[in-house]
Amino acid sequence: MAVVKLGSGYNIGVPPQVCTFVERPVPAPAKTPDIAQNKNLPTLSIVSTGGTIASRIDYRTGSVTSQFNASDILVAIPELAEIANYRTIPLPTLLSGNTTPAPWPPPARTTPAEPKHSQQVANV
Fold first, then answer.
1. Which residues contact residue 123 at a Cβ distance below 8 angstroms, ignoring those fewer than 6 apart?
2. Do residues 88 and 72 make contact, with C-beta atoms less than 8 angstroms apart?
3. Which of 36, 49, 53, 65 ranks highest by number of CB atoms within 10 Å?
């Protein structure tokens, strides 16, 4: 069986003899636009820790991955730039089902250090 990935993200099996195989070019990864900074606004830090809420479906593989990060929030909601400047601090991301106490020292050290750089800190 040949596995075909549908536009919906589902996979189906098709006998190879009824398939015509073509190669599709791999698209270049999208570039994240720069977020404008306004010196008159306060600076807020967003520490991106991942988890199930910060995950999305990878339609290429059909799996759930923790690809979402704090920069994605700013791209999705550009109006946030009118409220403050943002420092985004990505940490290694894990889905909730894979989380144990072992990966928590980096966020535990990062979050208390951020007030040196920002007026407010949020963990996402």
1. 46, 47, 49, 107, 111
2. no
3. 49
Return the DSSP state at 40.
Answer: T
pLDDT at 124: 47
Q: What is the mean pLDDT of residues 84-113?
A: 68
Helix and strand element counts for the chain (H, E): 2, 7
Q: What is the 3-state secondary structure (H, E, C) of 62-79?
A: CEEECCCCHHHHHHHCHH
Q: Cα–Cα distances in Å, from 43 out to 66, 87, 109, 112? A: 26, 7, 19, 15
Higher pLDDT, 60 or 31: 60
Classify residue 111 by its DSSP letter.
Answer: H
Domains of the chain: 37-99+107-124 (3.40.50.1170)
Look at the pTM and tell me if it is higher than 0.70: no
In a 3-state reduction of DSSP, which class is residue 2?
Answer: strand
Which residues, at least 6 apart from 91, have a Cβ–Cβ distance to it below 8 Å? 47, 48, 49, 50, 106, 107, 110
Tokens of 45: 């830090």
